Amino acid sequence: MIQGPTQPTESISPPLPAIARGRGLKGVQIRQIKSFTRAMLFLAPSLAIFITFVFIPLVRTFWLSSYLTNPLGKPTVFTGLGQYQRMFSTPELGNSLLRSVLFVLETVPATLLLALILAVLANQRLKGISIFRVVFSITIAVSSATASLIFMYLYHPSIGSLNYFIELLGGTAVPWLTSDKTALTAISMTTVWLQLGLNTVILLAAMQGIPEELYESAMIDGANGWNRFWGITLPFLSSTFFFLVVVDMLAAFQTFTPIQIMTLGGPADSTNLLVYSIYRQFYFNGNYGLAAAQSIVLFIIMLLLTIFQFVFVERKVFYE
Amino acid sequence: MRKPFYVVLVSLVVLSMLLAACGGAAPTTAVTQPTTPPSAGGAQPTTAPTAAPAAAEATATVKAAVPTAVPTATIAPPKSERATKIEFWHSMAGDIGGKAIPQMANDFNTSQDKCYVTPIYQGSYDDSLNKLKAGLQSNQTPAIVQVYDIGTRLLVDLGVATPVQNYIDKEKYDISDLEGNVLSYYTVDNKLYSMPFNTSTPILYYNKDMFKAAGLDPEKPPRTFDEFAADAAKLTQKDASGKTTVYGAAFAIYGWFFEQFLAVSGGMYVDNNNGRDGFATKATFNGPEGLNIFQWWQKMVNDGVMANYGRKTVDTRNAFLAGQTAMFIDSTAVLRGMMDSTKGKMDIGTAFLPRPTEDAYSKWGTIIGGGSLWIVNNRPTAEQDCAWEFIRFQSSPEEQAYWWTMSGYFPIRKSAYDTTVGKDWSAKYPQYTTAIDQLHQTPVNRVTQGALIGVFPSARATIETGIEEILSGKSTPHFPLDNAAQTVTQAIQDYNASMGLK
To answer: Which of A14, A269, B60, B181 is least enclosed, having the fewest CB within 10 Å?
Structure first.
């Protein structure tokens, strides 16, 4: 998306060859200017939106990160790179980064694996299968705030039903949200449950788009169910998987609602993911400058991640 | 097979939009509901099972005019079109905000025809404060705003308020009947900046039946830290397999409680005498008093006699109601709800907040929590005058008695106890005398006045993280406490620098 505005300028105004300078070339230049203007005219709406909502805020965030702000958000004391210095000298950023990475690892693979299993099951041709399809994808219809509240009561330290069943089966109660050892996993479980519906639906739709003939000819060649899944289904799903990995990772990195509702980043900062810690610094602690500096770090991380995915992962993906 | 699936898919999407629309709205009410614990750092998204049914009953007996069946009282239109209309932003959810405050506004609006007040619920204390900050820049402010106790320094420093002292001086308004302890909290540089509105202190709640079962005297609750730990050990019950079925006590991880324990121990939260003899520059809560509290708390959890139900005070209350713990501490503001939900099932006792030693009782005490009403100074003078009229009206003995019985917050005026409503109330709920005695026995000094800092909400959250660290067994109490102090000191210094305070 960001390539939008830059691409045309490259293609439209290539460097003029040295020999081409002179009287007769004025026409060429005029034509180039004309076509450039026309291109800009067409791009203007998207450029305007990008400049207003992406570039200006980005520059302003840089600027804000070099200031101390008063509680009303007015920058009052210039600190240069002081906010960055502080950010890298305190353990908070490192902890938030570590927690974010752990969270991605705890949610994305589990979501994809479970969604694949559900999609394969839902793809069977059985009577009444559409009921199961609805059931498997129902979490699309649940907002993350609702899900967080539901899980908060399941995890409740004194009246939670999850612990009730665990104890009924002879286990010991787990301090889900009140211990720093289990809180992140508890949030991860909520997120996996929540993301499962969307992932299942998308995988199922992709599976249904695989040409039937391939399976038929494979069956004639004597391929068993496992071979067909491994040799046809999975390769055909790779582009969908790529899409889901990107989407799920971005979603995991930006997780906010379950944390705000269930833990507020606690206990002992164990669920203080990067995006949430930026929110806390900005809205709760009123450290607008520090929050801006953290946002810049997040921006750089996301940028690198996106580049990495498009350069390396996308190559291995098979598009029909 | 394919076609029906798409039909299902489309209907699912439509359904999801509908549900998301509904789902989006529902949780917000639950989350932004301000905590019943009065001083409620707002950091706690609690849904408090408090005074709901009881308030309705009180309305019926106290003020027949309130329609008890209607969930939200409506505000009657102004009597005169020429009345000055003012807004009153508050953070009281549930029946307090839905009935008691509108009723108060109606009483005020019908008592005269010059001013007309409209109360508006603005979400939690934090939400409301954020809206005020944003409104200050676009001149969209109310004439009266309810701000939590810990926002006092911030509002004074921002210079956005007209001190109510100005009106008190101008009218020679008599404040001798107002509670001295309450006034002292909101007095900054010898000026009363805002009028106390909802005030409370923390007290100890205990289950008398469990005291009897454990062989303890139910009329002699623990008074010192050591007695508390010993009683908690005796009250703890285990089943045959060694699993704990009842914990002796439970504290919610709430920074307000730490502040209160520090105050009853005689410790200062910040330097310059709690920031009251000059701007605070440094956190001092990591002294011996603070360390003692951390050690006491950690030891009880490590010994298995105290449970940890997390930060939300409502979770600890629920554990107490479910008979999973025998003692807990919470605001006096939840007493009403506790009494109502345990009626006939459990005998609840209340006591003073435990102190480190017996002689601490005469020297120090608890700090006032809750919120106060501020007059915003960028409104026209006529609106500010009306704001004062309302503030004066709500602090009258009758309104204060009504407010007390409806909400559970203390009256700010001593004579409110002498009204018929007040007398009936004290007779009906003797447990309330604990809270009032604790208030009246607290000497006013720099410790019990409480700290004044502009970054209190974040300081409180920092302490909570520190408590979580010691309870997780990660470290000895020194490090989290010193780290917290360092973080808070840094925040105070940033604040002072950004505001140009020296």
So the answer is: A14
Q: Give the span between the Cα atoms of A129 and A123, in whole angstroms.
A: 8
Residues A287, B472: C-beta atoms closer than 8 Å? no
CB within 8 Å: A68 and B30: no
Assess whether the previous peptide bond of A267 is cis (omega < 30° from 0). Answer: yes
CA distance A138 to chain B (A): 8
Rounded to whole angstroms, how far apart are CA atoms A164 and A155? 10
CA neighbor of B498 nearest in space, from A287, A27, A97: A287
Superfamily designation of domain B52-200+369-429: Periplasmic binding protein-like II (3.40.190.10)
Strand, coil or helix: A155: coil
pLDDT number for residue B73? 62
Cβ-defined contact of B158 to A72 (cutoff 8 Å)? yes
Query: What's the token pair of residue A258?
Result: 């379950």
Which residues, 6+ apart, have CB-to-CB distance to B345 below 8 Å?
none
Q: Which of B112, B40, B75, B41 has its CA nearest to residue B407? A: B40
What are residue B116's DSSP bridge partners?
B85
List the structure tokens of A64: 């804000």
Write down the CATH number for the domain with range A89-316. 1.10.3720.10
The two counts, helices (H) then strands (E), for chain A are: 15, 2
Query: How much is the CA Rg of chain A, to the nearest whole Å?
Result: 26
Write the burial class of residue B171 (CB in 10 Å: 0-12 exposed, 13-18 middle, 19+ buried).
exposed
> How far is the C-alpha of B347 from the C-alpha of B247, rounded, in Å?
17
Q: Where along chain B do its domains lie?
A: 52-200+369-429, 202-366+446-499
As a whole number, the mean pLDDT across chain B is: 83
Mean pLDDT of all residues in A282-305: 88
pLDDT given at position A243:
86
| Identical topology for domains B52-200+369-429 and B202-366+446-499 | yes
| Among candidates A129, A146, A159 on the partner chain, residue whose Cβ is nearest the Cβ of B322 | A159
Q: Which residues of chain A are within 8 Å of residue B137 when distances are taken between CB atoms? A: 72
What homologous superfamily does CATH list for B202-366+446-499?
Answer: Periplasmic binding protein-like II (3.40.190.10)
Pairing of strands B84-90, B306-307: unpaired
First CA to last CA distance, chain A: 23
**Section B486-490 average pLDDT:** 93
**Partner residue opposite B318 with nearest CB, options A142, A159, A180:** A159
**Is the confidence at residue B21, as pLDDT, over 50?**
no
A146, A155, A158, best to mutate vs chain B, most B CBs in 10 Å: A158
Name which of B473, B32, B46, B478 is nearest B252 in CA terms: B46
Cα distance between residue A313 and residue A316, in whole Å: 6
ipTM over 0.90: no
- Within 10 Å of residue B65's Cβ, how many Cβ atoms? 11
- pTM equals 0.82
Over residues A267-271, mean pLDDT: 90
Residues of A in contact with B495 (CB under 8 A): 71
- B499, A201: Cβ pair inside 8 Å? no
Our CA-based measurement puts residue B44 at a distance from the nearest CA of chain A, in whole angstroms, of: 8
Q: Which of B327, B189, B310, B271 has its CA nearest to residue B488? A: B271
Domain range summary for chain A, segments of one domain joined by +: 3-56, 89-316
Instruction: Using only the alpha carbons of chain B, give its radius of gyration.
Output: 24
Please give the average per-residue pLDDT across B191-201, as a whole number. Answer: 92
Do residue B8 and residue A181 have CB atoms under 8 angstroms apart?
no
**Is the CB of B23 less than 8 angstroms away from the CB of A137?**
no
**Dihedral pair phi/psi, residue A69, rounded to 5°:** -115, 150
Other CB atoms within 10 A of residue A162 CB: 17
pLDDT of residue A25: 62
